[in-house]
């Protein structure tokens, strides 16, 4: 069993990615972030998902992206409820670059060379750090920027198994792997009880995926 660090947000995509990592024979070490996001619902979901799927260890790292703001998820900016043109305001500047850097650091400590991330470039919001070219660039950076890469010749792999899949295909794969999507939370603006809004960009994409699969979304919604 090889060790791998799996970025786990508590959402549908990252839960599926964790299940895929385990199915592919990796010992998954889950990593989540308390980064100044407007709610803690996703972290509670991440804990439950990690336990259900069977992460070897689950760490929650504290970083403060709210000190920079610039996003509806880290600043007092309304979460949009209708589709927008271009990159939406829910994009958090450099978030996946930062998250992958933390995963890379933990990989070095674990003696691992594999990172899993649940980015998707098909049914997604157009974030620039969810594209294949970004993943390839980070792999090259990892080999150059680490002791393991420079002294030991380690070749890091950033696995993005969902990157070319539709949301419906992701859901079908996760259901086949036994993922309990009722534990996951994808909403950008849940209420205090953790119920999803059903109208933000993330909710719309998720609900459309379940509708295409032909099965109800087991997550809680306000509407």
Q: What's this model, at a glance?
A:
37% of the residues lie in helices and 12% in strands.
What would your notes on this structure say?
The chain is of the alpha/beta class. 37% of the residues lie in helices and 12% in strands. The chain has seven helices and five strands. A five-stranded parallel sheet has the order 3-2-1-4-5, with helices on both faces. Helix 1 crosses helix 6. The longest helix has 16 residues. The chain starts with a strand and ends in a 10-residue tail after the last helix.
What is the CATH superfamily label?
HUPs
How is the biggest beta sheet arranged? 5 strands, parallel
Spatial sequence of strands, sheet with the most strands:
3-2-1-4-5
- Total domain modules: 1
Unreliable runs: none
How does the helix and strand content classify structurally?
alpha/beta
Strand content: 5-15%
Termini, distance in Å?
A: 43 Å
Helix content: 25-40%
Instruction: Tally the helices.
Output: 7
List the secondary-structure elements in sequence, H or E.
EHEHEHEHHEHH
Average pLDDT, rounded to a whole number, is 95
By CATH, the topology is Rossmann fold
List keywords for this structure.
223 residues; alpha/beta; Rossmann fold; five-stranded parallel sheet; 5 strands
